[in-house]
User: Which sequence fits this backbone?
C-alpha cells in the first residue's frame, strides 16, 4: 500500500538496498502526513516511517520481488535502531490489521541481533499468517559498514519522519522593530 | 502563550508525544525570533527553544490536557540533554515570571534521572506555586529508544533554535571575478 | 570523467583538500542520478559518491595535478569510513573497467590504516596497471582533526549521495480534511 | 573586518554567546566565498569559518565590546574542536597578518583545556602584539552542556563552511530516459 501511494507520478524514489545470499533488504523514508485543523493551522496527522522491504532469493543473484514483505519502522523504532550498541539486539512486533476485524491474523516480528564477533547484525523478519497457516522467515546479514549507513541515514531521516523539519522549515519571520546592535548580558540573559 | 502564538493560521505543528501511565509528554521545537537592527541587518532577538509539555493521566488512556505544564528548554539546556550519559542526571530550574513583580511566585524544576539498569530515564517535573500553595508533580518514564529519538531530534533542532540555519541559509553569493581552476597549495594555504 | 561532467558551466564545486609531504588528497561529494520510470515517477539510477582524488608531490609545495588518481567511495564504503574506530583499518578494492572487456587490467586499492599512537590515519592508494606494468602508490597522512572533518562531512554527505534528501525534500502535501486539535492517546497510538 | 562585511543590510545574524566572570565568548558561522572560474563553473575561493569573539568583563554584568578579539576557526580547527575528548586539549596559532609585511607582529593563540573533573573546558585566548608590547589574555569557562552546544552547532556548521552544502544543494537533475521499475541485483551492483 505504502509503495503504490508513494511511487506515483512526479514523485522521487531512492533507497538503500542490500542483496544477500538468502534475501534482499531495501530501506527508504516515507514522509509524515499533515492535515488542516479546525483552528486553521496544519498538524501532523500520521508520522512518517523508515520502510524496510524484505524479499527472498530464488537463485544466484535472482530474487522474487512478488514475495516482498513490508515492515514500517516508527520514530521510536528508528530510535531503537540508531542507538543499538555493537552487542545489543532489539525486536519489534507489528500487526498490520491492528484495530480492524482482522486483528491478530497476521503477526510480524523483526529482530536485529549481533553477528559473531560484533562484525555486524542479522535482520530477521518473521511473518506468521494464522489464516494460511504459514510462517515466512527472511534473514539478511548486515555488515558493520552497511549498518553504519543505515544508522546515519536513519538518524538523518528521523527528524523528517517526525515532521520537525516542516515545523522548522516554515517561513521565517523577522520583526520590523529595531533591536540592540551589540551583545549585552541583560539582553542575552532575558532571552 | 507559546502554544497560542505558534499554532496560528497557516503554520505547521508536529511533535513527539509519549503517553505513559501517570502522565504524557510532548516535545516540539519553536523557532527563534529575529528583528531588524538600526544598522539594517537582521539579528536574532530571542532564541528558539525545545518546548516540553507535561499533562496528567486521569484514567486508562485518558489525560487532562487542561492541566498541561510547559517547560521551554534553552539551547544550553538542550545541550545538557543531548550530552547526557546513560548514568548521568541533570536538573533545570525555571521561573516563568523572572524579572517581573511576580518573580519567585512559581518555581518549576525539571529533572532527568537514569532509570534502573540504564534502561532509560525518568523526566520529573515539579511546579511549586507559592500563591496557591500547590506543588504539582508529573513524571514520565522514557525508554532508551524514546530517549534516542529525543536526543537525535534535539541535536537536529539545536542549530535551528540557535538561528544558525538562518545565518547559513541566507542567499549565497558568487563573486564574478575568475578564480583558479585547479587545486594549488599556495591557494589552499592562503584561504 | 566524473570531474569533467561535474565541473560544467553554472555548477558549483567545493572540496576538502590536504597538501602533505608526498601527495595531496581532495574529497568532495557527487550527487546521485535520477531518471524517470515507465510508471511516471522518478527513481535513483546511480547513487552518488564521495570522490577522493590523490596526486603526487614533485617538490616543496609543488604537486603534479596531471598525475591525479580518482577513487569514488560508494555509500557503503563511506559507512565504513565514518564508523572507523581509532585503531581500526579498512581496505577497498575497485576495478574502473568492471564488466567491460578491460576488466582486471587496472586494480585500485585504498587503505585507511591507523597512525602511531592513534593520532590519525594513513590513506594509501595503490593503482596497479597490468598493461603498462606500473604500480603507482600515493600516501597521505591524515591527522585526527582532519579525519574528524572527513568523518563529519562524509556523515553529512551520506544521505545526500543515497538520494534520501531528494525523497525527503520533495513537495510536502497537507490534506484539507480537518484533524484533531489536541493530543489524544487513541490518535497518537493509531499513527 | 569579518563583522562589518557580514552584518550588512538585509543579512541575518545569530550567535551563541556566553557571559562569564572575566570575559564573554560569542560563536557564529561565516559562509565560504565562491567565484566563477574561467571554465564557467563556480568554485569555492575562500572557505568559511566558525568565528569566535572574546571580550573582557569590566564589572558585574558589564563587558567592553570595544576590546573584542576575533579568532576564526578553519574547517580543520573545527574538526579538532568537535572531536575533543573529555580530557583532551588543543591549541591553535594564528597570525592575522600572515604573508603580509606585518607578518609576525601579532601572534594569537587559542587553547581549549579540560576543567577539573572533566566538567567542561577553559577557552584561553592570548594576543601578543610585538609593536605595542602588549599581551592580552581572555579566559572563558565552558560547561559540559555549553560545550555540547558548541560541538553540535560546529558539527552542523562544518559541511556549510566547507561549501559542501552548496555542492549538494544545487539544482537536481532527472534524466528523461526511462529506468528500471523494480530493484534488481545486476542494476544495484552496477551502480
Assistant:
Amino acid at each position: 500500500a505504502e509503495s503504490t501511494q508513494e511511487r506515483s507520478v512526479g514523485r522521487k524514489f531512492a533507497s538503500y538496498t542490500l542483496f544477500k545470499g538468502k534475501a534482499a533488504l531495501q530501506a527508504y523514508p516515507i514522509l509524515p502526513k499533515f492535515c488542516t485543523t479546525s483552528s486553521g493551522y496544519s498538524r501532523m496527522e500520521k508520522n512518517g516511517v523508515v520502510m524496510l522491504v524484505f524479499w527472498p532469493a530464488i537463485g544466484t543473484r535472482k530474487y522474487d520481488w512478488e514475495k516482498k514483505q513490508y515492515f514500517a519502522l516508527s520514530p521510536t523504532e528508528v530510535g531503537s535502531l540508531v542507538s543499538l550498541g555493537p552487542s545489543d539486539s532489539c525486536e519489534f512486533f507489528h500487526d498490520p490489521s491492528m484495530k480492524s476485524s482482522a486483528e491478530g491474523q497476521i503477526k510480524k516480528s523483526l529482530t536485529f541481533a549481533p553477528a559473531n564477533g560484533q562484525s555486524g547484525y542479522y535482520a530477521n523478519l518473521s511473518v506468521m499468517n494464522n489464516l494460511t497457516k504459514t510462517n515466512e522467515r527472511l534473514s539478511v546479514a548486515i555488515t558493520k559498514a552497511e549498518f553504519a549507513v543505515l544508522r546515519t541515514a536513519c538518524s538523518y531521516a528521523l527528524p523528517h519522519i517526525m515532521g520537525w523539519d516542516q515545523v522548522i522549515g516554515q517561513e521565517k519571520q523577522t520583526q520590523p522593530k529595531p533591536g540592540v546592535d551589540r551583545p549585552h548580558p541583560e539582553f542575552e540573559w532575558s532571552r
